[in-house]
From TrEMBL:
GO biological process, one term: protein N-linked glycosylation
SUPFAM superfamilies documented for this protein: Nucleotide-diphospho-sugar transferases (SSF53448)
UniProt-listed Pfam families: Glycos_transf_2
Protein's UniProt name: Glycosyltransferase 2-like domain-containing protein
Domain of life assignment: Bacteria
PANTHER family: DOLICHYL-PHOSPHATE BETA-GLUCOSYLTRANSFERASE, GLYCOSYL TRANSFERASE
InterPro entries for the chain: Glyco_trans_2-like (IPR001173), Nucleotide-diphossugar_trans (IPR029044)
Residue ranges of domain Glycosyltransferase 2-like in the record: 4-137
Amino acid sequence: MYISWIIPVRNGENILAKSVSEVESYLKSKNFSGGYEILIMADTRSNDKTIEVSNGLAKTNPAVRVFAGETGGKGGAVKRGMLEAKGDIRLFSDADNATSPEHFDKMMPFFAGGCDVVISSRNSKDAEGAYQEVPESLVRRFAGKAGNMIIQLFAVWGIWDTQNGFKACTARAAKEIFSRSLMLGFSFDIEMLAIARHLNYTIGIIPVVWKHVEESTVTLKAYIQVFVDVFKIRWNLIINAYK
């Protein structure tokens, strides 16, 4: 197995089938040696037909595996996916494919060069050529900028976009990082990078062209919780909770 592609989803009945189709079309076109798998991490708290759609995709496609459950949030879903995956490379992406699957092309040279973790950024300060094709709302942009200042100061210095939902790890790094992770909500990205740094893993960054999709379930309340979690992550680093 070369690559495991993990898709956490909640209330995604309107977008999931299209997103999985796009991911599989990309994976088929690359003809990776060893093959691929697509893991759908479906949240049973969904109040639409996400579970039914997920199971339907698995019935018609042997490459799709569905894990349905209440994991506590996106971070919990990604954690389970990373630990259940079989791939040498394990990638998670948002269910709306705001970062299109072909961006993985840019990640491959980093892994070939020895990187343990490769992330994507919408900020040109991280990687030249990054930008947002369709801007987020003013509130989300403000929350994002304020949050990044806090994130850099207390958790992950030097990375300007820790939150874009398109990140990948080697199997070894995935097991070491996510077996230690504690954050189950949207702050898991920050914790993932903080633990990677703590374990002295090499992190590569690719630029992405990102398109905001209004189907996103991220709320202002979720942003505020991320700010609170950053201080928890800092404290966990201080007390060596990720030993």
